[in-house]
Amino acid sequence: MDRLQILAVLIWMVILVVIPVKVASHDYGEALTKSILFFEGQRSGKLLPTQRMTWRKDSALRDGFEIGVDLVGGYYDAGDNVKFNFPMAFSTTMLAWSVLEFGKSMDSDLTHAIDAIRWATDYLLKATSVPGFVFVQVGNPYADHSCWERPEDMDTPRTPYAVSKQFPGSEVSAEIAAALAASSMVLRPIDLGYSARLIKRARMVFDFADEYRGSYNESLGPWVCPFYCDFSSYLDELVWGAAWLFKATKAPIYKNYVLENIHNLETSNINGPPILSSGSFSEFGWDSKHAGINVLVSKLVTSYTSDSTPFISNADKFVCSLLPESPTLSVSYSPGGLLFKSGGSNLQHATALSFLLLAYSRYLNKANRVVHCDNVVASPARLVQLVRSQVDYILGSNPLKMSYMVGYGQKFPLRIHHRGSSLPSIDQHPGHIDCNGGTPYFNGNNPNPNFLIGAVVGGPDIKDSYSDSRADFVHSEPTTYINAPLVGILAYFKSHPS
User: Fold this and answer.
1) Which residues of 60-73 are buried (b: 16+ CB within 10 A; e: fewer)?
2) Which residue positions in the chain have pLDDT lower than 70?
3) Alpha-carbon distance 391 to 305, whole Å?
4) Cα–Cα distance between 151 and 425 in angstroms, integer?
5) What residues contact residue 14 under an 8 Å CB cut-off, 6+ apart?
6) 10 Å Cβ neighbour count for 104?
C-alpha cells in the first residue's frame, strides 16, 4: 500500500469516528421506571396499599411461622415462588449501589427504588433476627418447581432453611451483610435510626460469616443446589462484604480485612486444594464478586499506593477482558453485538458487567485516567459507549428489533417463564388453581394474561434468536439480578441520553 492509499484509509477512519452513526433512540426514563416497577411484581408477603402492579396479591403470609420465626416478605427471585436469599441479597446490594452511584438521576423514580430496597432489607432483618442462625431460603424448591401455580395459591411446603455455627454458610451470610451495609447508606439521609439498625446487623452477620467459615453447599446442598450453588468459594463474598462495610463505616478494620484477604481469592477452590484462578478478575454476578470488589475498592483507594494493588490493575484487566477490540478479550459477542458469557440467563452478564464498566468509567474520569489493553487505549467515553450498546440492544436495537424488557417498545416477550404472569390473576379467576391446574396455561401458546412490566428476560441466544417460549426458561425467565444493575445504568442514560 503506497502513501496515498494509507492517507486515504486514515482520512476514512477519521470520518467514521467523527460522523456519528444514527441509531434508534430509546426512552431511558421510561425503561428506568419500568425496570423498578418489576420488583413490585416479585414481592412476597403482605402487599402495601401503594402497590402499583395490582394483579399481584398477598402471598406466603405464614412463612416461618411453623418454627416461630417471622419470615414473611422479601422477593421471589425469578419465575418461581421460592425465596432464595443468596441472589436476593445480591440483587439488593446492586439496587443499593445503583442508587448510591446514580440516584441523583432517578428523579421521581428514586422513591420507588428506595422502596424496592427497603422491601428487601425488612425481610433480610427478619432472616438474621435469631442469634447464631441466618435463614437462607424459604420454600422447598423441588416441590415448587414441580408445580405451576400463582404465588397467591401456593400449597407446596414453605420450608425455611438456615445456616448456623455448626452448619455454616459464609457466602450467603456475607452477601446479606453486604446488602445491609450498602442499603444503610441509601437509607441514612431518610431514616437515620433504620440505617443504624441495618449497619449494626450487617456487622453482626459479617462476623458470623467470617468466624464460622464454610459453604452452604456443604450444609444445605440438597436444597440449594443445583439452583444457587456457590461455585466460586465463599472468600469473595467475605471480601465483598468487608468492602461494603468499609464504604459504609470507614472503619479501618474492614479496610485491613480487604487488604489482607484479597490475594487469597486468586488461589481459592471450594471443593479441593487451592488452585490459581487467573480469570476471576473478569467474573461478577450473584455467585462471583471478584470484578465487583476490584471496581468498588478502586474508588476507595484513590491513588497508586500499595493499597491500590491489585484492585486498580485487576479492574483495568477486567475492562480489557470485555472490550471487543482488546487483544485480551475473554467474552463473546453475538453478530448483533450482545455480550455473552457461558451459562444460562445471559442478560444477567450483560447487565452486571455493564454496570461495573459504567461505574468504573466514572472513577477513571475523576482520576483523569485511561485503560491500556496492550496497544489499545480505552477512554472512559469508550466504556460508556460499550455499555450503551448493551442497553440499546436490550431495549430493541438488535437484529429482531425486539425489546427484551416486558412492556417496553412495540415488540417484547409475551410468554415469559413466570408463574404469576402466565396464570389469570385473582381478579380474573378468584378460585384456587392447584399444583397441576396451571399446567394447561404453561403448555398453551397464548400470551401471558398479566404483563410483568419491566421484567428483563434471560435474552436471546448467541445467534440473536429468541423463541418466546415459556418452556425455554434459560432465555424467557426474568430474574431480580438481571434488573437490579440495569436500574443504575438506565438512570445514568436518562440523564445522558446522547
Assistant:
1) beebbeeeebebbb
2) 1-24, 266-279, 302-309
3) 35
4) 10
5) none
6) 10
Residue 20 DSSP class: P
Cβ distance 75 to 115 under 8 Å? no
Full DSSP string of 69-123: ------B--SSSS-EEHHHHHHHHHHHHHHHHHHGGG-TTHHHHHHHHHHHHHHH
DSSP letter string over 450-470? S--TT-B-S---TTS-----T
Contacts of 87 (CB under 8 A, 6+ apart): 77, 228, 286, 479, 480, 481
pLDDT for position 356: 98
Q: Per the omega criterion (within 30 degrees of 0), is the bond before 226 cis?
A: yes
Task: Transcribe 250-270 into DSSP letters.
Answer: --HHHHHHHHHHGGGGGG--T
CATH C-level class of 46-277 = mainly alpha
Give the dihedral of Cα atoms 77, 67, 129, 164; nearest 10 deg: -80
Q: Where are the domains of the chain?
A: 46-277
- Burial of 267 by CB count in 10 Å (0-12 exposed, 13-18 middle, 19+ buried)? middle
Q: Which residues are catalytic?
A: 417, 468, 477
Provide the pLDDT for residue 341: 94
Number of H helices, E strands in the chain: 18, 7
State the cell numbers at 416.
415469559
Contacts of 409 (CB under 8 A, 6+ apart): 395, 396, 402, 403
Whole-model pTM: value is 0.92
Q: CA 70 to CA 127: how far, in whole Å? A: 8
Is the link from the previous residue into 310 a cis peptide, with omega within 30 of 0? yes
C-alpha cell at 93: 446490594
The Cα 213–Cα 270 span in angstroms is 11
pLDDT of amino acid 478: 98
103/420 Cα distance (integer angstroms)? 30
pLDDT at 129: 98
